[in-house]
Protein: Cell division cycle 16 homolog (S. cerevisiae)
Amino acid sequence: MSYQSYQSALFWADKIASLSHEDPQDIYWLAQCLYLTSQYHRASHALRSRKLDQLYGACQYLAARCHYAAKEFQQALDILDMEEPASKKLLDQTVKEDHGIQQSPKDWEMSPASIDSSICLLRGKIYDAMDNRPLATSSYKEALKLDVYCFEAFDLLTSHHMLTAQEEKDFLDSLPLSQQCTEEEDELLHFLFENKLKKYNKPSDMVVPEMVNGLQDNLDVVVSIAERHYYNCDFKMCYKLTSMVMVKDPFHANCLPVHIGTLVELSKANELFYLSHKLVDLYPNNPVSWFAVGCYYLMVGHKNEHARRYLSKATTLERTYGPAWIAYGHSFAVESEHDQAMAAYFTAAQLMKGCHLPLLYIGLEYGLTNNSKLAERFFSQALSIAPEDPFVMHEVAVVAFQNGDWKTAEKLFLDAMDKIKAIGNEVTVDKWEPLLNNLGHVCRKLKKYDQALEYHRQALVLIPQHASTYSVIGYVHSLMGDFESAIDYFHTALGLKRDDTFSVTMLGHCIEMYIGDTDAYIGQTSYMGPHRALSPPCEFHHSSFNL
Structure:
């Protein structure tokens, strides 16, 4: 078995089991060989026909795992939920003699703690497959408490966003590390676990304990840092780190989703096309392969039907794959199909309890359908998970703007701007054009016209050919009485967008005011007074997201 010659191992395991007159340990190894050769039902039968699953924890676990591998989830759960195996009980001498059981603290070199932990882990996977996320979460937590070295349980909890940030921190503090580890191992585990949890923290220089010096170059640790940069919107730094990982390990499982998301954010279509085709060729049964293909079609535009087809395949392969559900929602959102988009986002929110993105996108859809109350509720939930995320702060500010709370909107917009500046110069700047324009809008509402003009001009630097920005600059100039400048900007706006009715209307009024024909403007003060009947074409901007 150690040489992966499973057929040879199976042949000899069968002969040894016969020679030993079906010794339980030899039958267990026979079942292991059958499992490794994908003969799941034979392996289960070898154990259950001899009732070994009722006597030994290791046999119970292996039998259940066989049915799990065969996608017979209820049968697997029934085996795990049976009465405790006899080898785990303190049996009296009579029972021992009747059954011939040798009671020992281990089942064939497997400690009781590791068996119990493996059973809890498997139970969690079964609940996950049966769409029972709360029980799956509880099982994973129990598995990790029984054996703090069971990293798979920890990884499933964190990578699937099953816990909120605070719940993750509380759970880490509750783990019995000191009871199950030496002092050195305690420090190592605490460093590795804590590093994986801080995805919403601001990226900073890593402090590596002296006794584990060298781990800063470990690929898993680098991916955790890259993920932190991603959630802090520093996509260029994230791309630099993930690219380094992909060079060393081209198909690093934890790195791929972050790398794909970064390629989308940076609009690297050719690179994503090449990567997605490689993944589909090599790993056609892995959901991340089809997720990559779906993201590519989403990015190139006007291929939303193709994107949905491949993203649907990803969710079919793994129903709990949250990133595919989010991208699936985006494919509807770009077509303004709000109901279908929200259905996908709600599914993602149920699967990714600890991730703020599904809640943010649900709030966006409610905002676009003018349901500001529900939008505000979901934005607040997203903000509680990721309080430092400038995208979320921006959307909360938009809701405050819609509700007429200009002061609160201004504060939140400025807070979002401060967060962006704190990230540094490596941020993709054109993403923040809506924020600058919205700051201009709220300053205009507060009659801070000079500041409003400054913000709109900054937005114009980011996206120079945006007609609505020229239009709103002209509008601010008209409010300041500078009709000559207003006319110039409205002309420019109409040059970029000829059917802009607001610019046409305001251009006419400004020309009349400029030539001094004030009588022609009587009764039209609502356009430029504090209670305007007409609003700029982009009264507020929601952020646009790819992933």
